[in-house]
Design brief:
mainly alpha, 0% strand, elongated
């Protein structure tokens, strides 16, 4: 009885720690977040042709959140950084 209780405690801690590690490492890559979350409402086409400053991407991402995009603040910041790097105003 006592050893099975410890096994349950150990299992719960192991699951909790693995979830914490995923969260600390950033979880889902930002390009996957863009693919999964943004394409629920539109294709990637408007993103692929857009060239914006970080401030413009910030406004765009939070406007999409206001319209129902499901991103946490941490995910939004990662998406903004990714889009600013890959689709910045000074890009190709």
């Amino acid at each position: 009885a006592m050893s099975s209780r410890w096994a349950v405690v150990f299992l719960v801690l192991a699951v909790w720690l693995s979830l914490l590690l995923v969260r600390c490492r950033g979880g889902v890559p930002p390009e996957q977040l863009v693919q999964d979350r943004c394409t629920r409402c539109h294709t990637l086409a408007p993103i692929e042709v857009a060239r914006k400053t970080p401030e413009e991407w910030t406004r765009t991402v939070y406007r999409m959140i206001d319209k129902g995009a499901r991103l946490s603040d941490a995910e939004a910041e990662r998406v903004i950084a990714y889009l600013s790097d890959t689709h910045g105003a000074d890009g190709p």
